[in-house]
Design goal:
By secondary structure, this protein is of the alpha/beta class. The protein contains 22 helices and nine strands. The chain is 58% helix and 7% strand.
């Protein structure tokens, strides 16, 4: 059993509906805990049984050992390596993967040439490219057709290529950095750690893909342009200009321009990339924000404190609050370059909104109503709110000394109550005090006396109001119920 096999962005790059459906079929079989029937898959994918049977036959013709048949309609997958192999084949056959990689390499073909190379009609290719235009629009980019190329600001083009390769990393090794780029990355990352105060505070793998993109764009003489109003002040920079220049020339071996302005912009872009890849800790964040624009930092601290006031929560210490402030300060700086740096991956946003919507909604309202001038033009409030939600969960759960008290009031017979106790103990975790009550009626007086934070019950109570978070689950709690309980504990 395994989880999601292909992320949302990669699936969007596969415009062929049949291939898209076959990937989802493989995903349904691979993530099932047991042999799954085609009827179950047909219901989930809203597809006919006849269509799925044909899909299974096509998948088997590609790799006959991938799907294990227990009967005509009972399917199972137990070889993850084969899954990866088949997914890579399906992705690499997608025209948009091939076209994107070709454009990145500086190889530009016209419509007829692409149709010949991909063995598809020009009408089909136009349909795929129209779909590609919709994807590029999310990155503020356009698609040129004669020849096929990506148009837009260089910073947005670089961001798109980083997003593309970083997202397709788990699909195929053909989209990963080669050994030369990887070696450059290892040397440059070590240099950054030794010549800055960033030791242990920069995301390792994301920087690898940025170096891959930057080196290729410079090889193609596609230079970044950063206007004067976007320039960072020295105290805002992760590294000094001198050390960044040495990193670019001596370590990365970048071929720089004879134009001093071009070189300055490329150095500055490297600094911006480091801003986007911080690993946020209390000690590092508090050390940085104290060096900054006093008025801005005070305004950001006030805005962050508002969250805890609105929710009647104890305010964390200043070091913890500094994480939020440091993140917002970096978003403000990066937004000067492009609002795309505010964005998260689709899966992150979807998960946090679904599982921690109550926290997210408060942050969304605070950002929407805030009076901080530098935050007035946030383009992606959802994404920034999601990050603030995750920082809130981190700070709350790290700093919460008092164990949360969750009361399970379950109704059941015989061994079932014992089973529920064991199941709940495995779900909730050690940082929670748990009480199981099945031999008496739960009242609000009991809730107050024993300082209960969360009440979980599997029956309906019509005559009592409880002064705590209350969740009524199914008579026989299912996976959704346990996910909700886990979320409630996490959010308190």
């Amino acid at each position: 059993m395994r989880g999601l096999l292909m992320n949302h962005f990669c699936l969007r790059l596969i415009p062929d509906k049949k291939v898209h459906r076959q990937i989802l079929l493989i995903e349904q079989v691979a993530k099932a805990r047991y042999a799954i029937t085609l009827d179950e898959i047909a219901d989930t994918l809203n597809t006919s049984l006849r269509t799925l049977k044909r899909d299974v036959q096509e998948i088997e013709s590609m790799e006959e050992k991938l799907i294990i048949r227990h009967s005509a309609s009972m399917l199972e997958i137990d070889d993850n390596e084969l899954v990866d192999f088949v997914l890579a084949e399906l992705a690499e056959k997608s025209p948009l993967f091939a076209i994107t990689k070709s454009i990145f390499e500086g190889r530009y073909l016209n419509i007829d040439e692409w149709a010949d190379e991909l063995f598809i009609s020009t009408s089909t290719l136009y349909r795929y490219l129209n779909h590609f235009k919709e994807i590029l629009a999310d990155f503020h980019l356009k698609l040129q057709l004669s020849p096929v190329a990506i148009e837009g600001r260089e910073v947005d083009i670089r961001y798109f290529f980083h997003y593309f390769f970083y997202s397709t990393d788990d699909v195929s090794q053909n989209f990963r950095p080669d050994k030369r780029v990887f070696n450059l990355f290892e040397e440059s990352f070590q240099y950054i750690m030794e010549h800055s105060e960033l030791e242990g505070h920069v995301s390792h793998r994301s920087v690898l893909y940025w170096i891959m993109v930057i080196t290729k764009r410079l090889e193609l003489r596609q230079y970044i342009q950063i206007s004067d109003d976007v320039q960072l002040k020295q105290q805002e920079l992760p590294m000094t200009y001198k050390s960044i220049e040495k990193l670019a020339v001596e370590v990365l071996g970048l071929v720089l321009s004879s134009d001093a302005d071009v070189n300055r912009n490329e150095m500055l872009f490297l600094d911006f990339i480091l801003l986007d890849n911080y690993v946020y800790t209390e000690q590092f964040s508090s050390g940085i924000v104290n060096m900054e624009n006093v008025t801005l930092i005070e305004n950001l601290f006030a805005m962050v404190r508002e969250y805890f006031v609105r929710n009647g929560l104890e305010e964390p210490d200043e070091a913890s609050l500094s994480i939020f402030v440091f993140f917002l300060r970096n978003i403000i700086l990066l937004s000067r370059l492009s609002p795309l740096f505010q964005k998260n991956f689709f899966e992150v946003n979807a998960s946090i909104k679904k599982n921690h919507g109550n926290i997210f909604e408060v942050w969304y309202d605070i950002l929407r109503e805030n009076a901080v001038p530098e935050l007035q033009h946030i383009a992606h409030i959802d994404d920034v709110s999601v990050n603030l939600t995750m920082f809130t969960l981190y700070v709350n759960n790290k700093n919460n000394g008092k164990k949360k008290h969750i009361l399970f009031s379950f109704d059941g017979k015989k061994a079932y109550l014992n089973y529920l106790q064991i199941f709940a103990a495995n779900i909730v975790g050690s940082n929670t005090k748990m009480t199981f009550l099945s031999n008496q009626r739960v009242t609000n007086d009991y809730i107050k006396e024993f300082d209960v934070d969360i009440l979980v019950k599997n029956y309906k109570e019509r005559y009592e109001h409880f002064d705590c978070v209350t969740y009524t689950c199914s008579r026989q709690p299912n996976a959704t119920d346990w996910d909700k309980v886990s979320q409630l504990v996490f959010d308190i």
